[in-house]
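User: I'm curious whether this sequence folds into something compact or stays loose and floppy. Could you predict its structure so I can see for myself?
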Amino acid sequence: MTGLFIAITFIIIITLLVFRVPTAFAFGGGTLIMLSLFDMQTGWVMPSTFQLYCSFPLLAIPLFVLLGMLFEYSKLVRRLVDLLTY
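Assistant: Here's the prediction. I'll summarize afterward.
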């Protein structure tokens, strides 16, 4: 049963990705479709997902990307390089 569940979920996700659905929505949609088809309870999905993404090391990745974008748009790095090269 578990192998069938994984195979069908994988097929649904690949199909959604082929139709150019964004990756996050394809994974979430494929999982929710399979949970509803196999008549599983969905009350645990949000708390467990929130718990997985609430770790401090995972928070560092988007904040690092945000900081890089802020430096790029504010031209702060260019000014620091110019300051250090004189």
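Summary: Residues 77 and 83 are 10 Å apart (CA to CA). The chain has a mean pLDDT of 83.
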